[in-house]
Each structure stands twice: as C-alpha cells, then as structure tokens.
Amino acid sequence: QVHLVQSGAEVKKPGASVKVSCKASGYTFTSNTMHWVRQAPGQRLEWMGWIHAGYGKTVYSQRFQGRVTITRDTSASTAYMELSSLSSEDTAVYYCAREDNTGWFTFGNWGQGTLVTVSS
Amino acid sequence: SSELTQDPAVSVALGQTVRITCQGDNLRTSYVHWYQQKPGQAPVLVFYGKNSRPSGIPDRFSGSSSGNTASLTITGAQAEDEADYYCNSRDSSGNHYVFGTGTKVTVL
Q1: What whole-number distance in Å separates Cα of residue B65 and Cα of residue A84?
Q2: Tell me, what's the pLDDT at A23?
Q3: Start-to-end CA span in chain B (Å)
Q4: Cα distance from A102 to chain B (closest Cα, Å)?
Q5: Chain A residues with CB inside 8 Å of B39's CB?
C-alpha cells in the first residue's frame, strides 16, 4: 500500500529556510502529482503547491510564490518542499499529499505531517 | 481568487443527520471533495466527485451539489464522526487548489 513518510520536526529562526522531505513507497513515484498543504495551529488547511513527480512541473499558490520551492528526487522517490524567509506565521504542520490518478484530483494519501516551529 | 466558505461549527445528536455546506463561486464549474480531520491526525478523504466514497468510508457519508453550494451529509452520525471537515476543489485555472474554511462537527 501507499506510504508517505515525512522528515522530522524542525525549529528555525526567523529569516531562515526549512526543507521538508516526503518519501513515497508502494506505488510508481513518477506516475503521480505530489501536493504540499500546511496547517497553522488551530487554523484551516492551506494548499501550497504541487509537483508532477514524473515531469517535474510545479505550480505554486500565489500566497507562497517566490518563497516556496517544491522539488523531487526520482531515484529516491522523495519530494521536497523548501520555504524561505520564515516568520512566526509560518509555524505550522506541513503535509505532503499524493494526488490520486482517478481523474478527480483528490488527495487519497497523506504524510504524517512535519511540525515546523519558527521562533527566535 | 477562489474562496470556499463553510460554517465554523455544527452539532448533531448521536444517530441524527447533519449537513455541512461549502460555498464558492468556482463550485459552479469544479467538483468538491470532502476531508475529515481528527485532532493530531492527517486529513482523510471521505467523499469525492459526483457521488463517490473511498474504500472503507461508511455509506452514512454522502454528498451533493447545486449551483455554488456543495454539501456533505452524515446520516446517522456516530461518535467517531466528531471531527473537522474541509471541502476542497480546484480553481477556474485548474492548476490551483483551495480548501474551505472548515467545519467542526460535534456529536452530542
């Protein structure tokens, strides 16, 4: 079955960058699109962007444009999300989510989440 | 930009029926999907598309849509249905995605 395993919690200072990984298994990594979604404490889910793991095409939310970079390493079946110029408002749990190949653009599998804390 | 608006909270008596709504202009042209999220856990897809449930999701979850409003209905709510629910769709470009504001469902 599909598994998405994310890297561990991070503590960063304001102005720094963070890079979160998402290792996929149980399917052909390059066949699907991987999304990144974040959730600040007590807040709603917020979509950040996606990468097609095969083609490498990326699309980012305008809210994070210029600060977020999503990449992938096909040899390692791993997707990455890097967020720069961190502020306290970026404190959140970051999830990777695999888009299903059903034609419905749904997120059928999620990583366990990575807590990123931004604090001086 | 696309926005999806949900009621912040609803409550339902055990075994009764509750409907959660999601409003947004892009819903006139895009399908809505629904996710359930329990505290400390990742979201789980519970209903999608016109009329589909992922494997393992009870048939008490159903969905509908009309105009700019979509709904998720839980018929015969159980204690384990207490959670936050988020609607989700793509915007008019088809490349960007958006989540609703979320609805907290309390089962009394």
Answers
A1: 39
A2: 98
A3: 36
A4: 10
A5: none
